Amino acid sequence: MKKIIVAAAALIKDHKIFIAQRPAHKKPPLVWEFPGGKKEEGETLQQALRRELQEELQIDTSIGEFICQVTHQYDFGEVEVNLYKASMTNPDAKIIDIEHSATAWISPQDFDKYQFAAADIELLDEIRKLPI
């Protein structure tokens, strides 16, 4: 079965964290996730994350410390998610989302109000430990 290596961001601003809802045509559909994407050949995880955030959200970011890694088995393959702290290089920049169904800035205490992708659920406890 295929293994997909993903870099994801705990994008933090004003004591909130950014989440995005996957579009209906992507697997798994309409669940919430931390933004990021697949690592391409020859990229580091940090380079992949910076590229994905630029492509999908039209923002420039500074990728910070590695938080954790989780691996989850979906019906379409194994997904390894590598989570990093990240911040926008221009905090006043407008996020222009071109990939997701919806986006939100939320407090970690509101995580339970959203249905997260299975792999991202495993990240929630680690994110709750961050000084946000």
What can you tell me about this protein's structure?
The structure is a single chain. With 132 residues, the protein is an alpha+beta fold. The chain contains 3 helices and 7 strands; from the N terminus they run ββββαβββαα. It has helices at residues 45-57, 118-121, 124-128, and strands spanning 3-13, 16-21, 32-33, 36-38, 61-74, 77-88, 102-106. Strands 1, 2, 3, 4, 5, 6 and 7 form a 7-stranded mixed β-sheet that branches. The mean pLDDT is 95.
Q: Would you tell me the structural class of the helices and strands?
A: alpha+beta
Major sheet attributes? 7 strands, mixed
Distance between the termini: 37 Å
Q: Which sequence of SSEs, written as H and E, runs from N to C? A: EEEEHEEEHH
The quaternary state of the protein chains shown equals single chain
The shape, in one word, is globular
Alpha carbon gyration radius: 14 Å
Quick rundown:
The chain has 132 residues and is an alpha+beta fold. The chain has helices spanning 45-57, 118-121, 124-128, and strands at residues 3-13, 16-21, 32-33, 36-38, 61-74, 77-88, 102-106. β1 (3-13) and β2 (16-21) form a beta hairpin.
